[in-house]
Write a structure and sequence with these properties.
The complex is a heterodimer of chains A (242) and B (259). Chain A is mainly α. Chain A has 10 helices and no strands. Chain A has a domain of 164 residues: MetI-like fold, CATH 1.10.3720.10. The radius of gyration of chain A is 21 Å and the shape is flat. Chain B is α/β, with parallel strands linked by helices and 259 residues long. Chain B has a domain of 66 residues. A 6-stranded mixed sheet of chain B has the order 8-9-10-3-11-12, with helices on both faces. Chain B has a 4-stranded antiparallel sheet with strand order 2-1-4-5, covered by helices on one side. A two-stranded antiparallel ribbon of chain B has the order 6-7. The chains are: A mainly alpha (242), B alpha/beta (259).
């Protein structure tokens, strides 16, 4: 699907939200839902940043780190990939305080989701690095580059292109799993919707708006990743000049 | 005192498990000498280049470059396996051009040629660019300096790769079947460039090739490898004109027969 189609979809979603927001049966829900959407965006953006950092770090350590760090990274990846995000959220929020470490709900939400997606992300990064042709490493060696120079200047820029689409998938997963944070007392978009629904029983307007809002957010994400991919692949995907 | 050889393989062996690829290789290459390595596939000829570029480790023996060990370093008068810092210091004298070019696809021709001079040698961008422009001009690609590898023909890519290697000012250049991946009509332009740098640069050159005509005309010495050993070596006129060894005769016959 081209970027144009995505942009058209986004414009349509925003237009429908805009039109509905002016309708009597819908407008009263807008302030509350927007408030929830703000929190959802904050958690998703900060969680994504944490996921990115953890993913790259864990992948590099697992590939090139010294043995004890390598084990640590493997343990991290397997724990956070192998258990559910909900359990991780509960554990950090309800169990950790029993050991004397109490954190606010917001940082816990960012941490749990970021660490969870970061664990998947580390496999994305690792796979992308390993997919760079061996000849690229050999070309670097023949130019007498150091390991760090090879990675930074040659291998990672090429791996980066390969990891953009799977990261896009993970970020969308992350965005949607933010709905779990209502279970640790946060009023995100999904929670606001449910709360309003219980109070008013206006199920159709509320969940129509919520659906469109999630769609708009994930479309923004998808479009952003597409643009990034296009920029990063300069030279890699181009045809031969005439 | 005789001059140090530029490169010396001293009883070097390479094994992959039970398979012996090179068996006690002894080979000296003089400063400025152009040596061609020929032989059937699997004879270990590419491994010789790859070991010298430190792309392969060796199992036995020592490789020397200008009288200094490459694969080893001296500690308390003994030779111990080299650490990376030592390898990089010696390896700086060696450049290599590959069969599959191995250009960096995310960089233009110019960027490929200034990358290592800047990151490894610490050259300033302007200086690196001036040098790269000279070299790209020499290989006939000054018009293509802003093209990405995917926008260049195989022959053009290989010429960029040669310029990129020369930008590091090596003393030794290794060419590993550099025309084997090229369409036949593009082979000539790459060989022409190699001829030219052989004339204009004070380089020691070691090449693995299937281009017998080129090996004959270009090299000072030809080594015929067979089953991990040098089976016969000598000036091209002798090796091609009057091969002494039966294996050499068979190989040359088979190759020349194929055209």
């Amino acid at each position: 699907m081209g970027i144009r189609t995505l942009v058209a979809m986004l414009a349509a979603a925003l237009a429908v939200i805009g039109i509905l927001a002016t309708q009597a049966g819908y407008s009263l829900f807008m302030p509350g839902l927007l408030q929830g959407a703000m929190l959802t965006v904050e958690i998703a953006v900060l969680g994504a940043l944490l996921a990115l950092v953890m993913g790259v770090l864990a992948a590099l350590v697992r590939l090139y780190g010294p043995a004890p760090l390598r084990w640590l990274a493997t343990v991290y990846v397997e724990i956070f990939r192998g258990t559910s995000a909900l359990v991780q959220l509960f554990w950090l929020f309800f169990v950790l305080p029993q050991f004397g470490v109490s954190l606010d709900a917001f940082p816990v939400a960012v941490m749990a989701l970021g660490l969870n997606v970061g664990a998947y992300g580390s496999e994305v990064v690792r796979g992308a690095i390993l997919s760079v042709a061996r000849g690229q490493w050999e070309g670097c060696t023949a130019l007498n580059m150091s390991r760090a120079q090879m990675l930074r200047r040659v291998i990672l820029p090429q791996a980066f292109v390969a990891m953009i689409p799977p990261w896009g998938n993970l970020f969308i997963e992350l965005l949607k799993s933010t709905s779990l944070v209502s279970l640790i007392t946060l009023s995100d978009l999904a929670f606001k919707a449910q709360q309003m629904n219980q109070n008013t029983f206006k199920t159709i307007p509320i969940f129509t708006l919520v659906l469109l809002m999630y769609l708009a957010m994930s479309l923004v994400l998808t479009i952003g990743m597409r643009l990034l991919e296009r920029r990063a692949s300069a030279g890699l995907a181009r045809g031969r000049a005439a | 005192m005789t001059e140090q050889p530029m490169v010396r393989f001293e009883n070097v062996s390479k094994r992959y498990g039970a398979l012996t690829v090179l068996d006690g290789l002894d080979l000296e290459i003089a400063r400025g000498e152009k040596v061609s390595v020929i032989g059937p596939s699997g004879s270990g000829k590419t491994t010789v280049l790859r070991m010298l570029m430190t792309l392969e480790t060796i199992n036995d023996g020592v490789i020397w470059v200008e009288g200094e060990p490459l694969t080893h370093m001296k500690r308390n008068g003994k030779l111990v396996p080299a650490d990376l810092a030592h390898i990089r210091r010696i390896r700086a004298k060696i450049g290599m051009v590959f069969q599959s070019f191995n250009l960096f696809p995310h960089m233009t021709a110019m960027a490929n040629c200034i990358e290592a001079p800047m990151t490894v040698l610490g050259m300033k961008r302007a200086d690196a660019q001036a040098r790269a422009a000279e070299l790209l001009d020499m290989v006939g690609l000054s018009q293509k300096k802003d093209h990405y590898p995917s926008q260049l023909s195989g022959g053009q890519q290989q010429r960029v790769a040669i310029a990129r290697a020369l930008a590091m000012r090596p003393k030794i250049m290794l060419f590993d079947e550099v025309t084997s991946a090229l369409d036949p009509e593009l082979v000539g332009e790459v060989l022409q460039v190699i001829r030219q740098i052989g004339r204009e640069h004070d380089l020691t050159m070691l090449m693995v090739t299937h281009q017998m005509g080129f090996a004959k005309e270009f090299s000072d010495r030809v080594c015929f490898f067979y089953q991990g050993k040098i089976c016969e070596q000598g000036p091209p006129s002798e090796l091609f004109g009057a091969p002494k060894n039966e294996r050499t005769r068979q190989f040359l016959h088979a190759v020349l027969e194929a055209g």
